[in-house]
Amino acid sequence: MKVRTTISVDKYKLDKARRLLSSSVIWDSLSSLIEDTIDTIDIDLLVTNLIKSLNLDVVFPSHKEVILSRPKVRDSSAKIVREMRDGRI
Known about the structure:
- This protein has five helices and no strands.
- With about 90 residues, the chain is an all-alpha fold.
- The longest helix has 12 residues, at about 10-20.
- The radius of gyration is 23 Å and the shape is elongated.
- The mean pLDDT is about 85.
């Protein structure tokens, strides 16, 4: 379902978008350009669509798997950071 809306945009940016539309084969309207831009902001959707378009079989690890696979630090983080800072030239 499409919804009509009104937005306020900087004139320079709108003109730039229109020039992009006139030279592009990707978007057929300003609305489709804005819809794609909004989709790009949604990183989860962007990554999911990329995986589908590349026909990849990707499984994301669970939170528990990520926690269990993290490297263990033997010393305190403060000590490690101090050593890193002291090692700078």
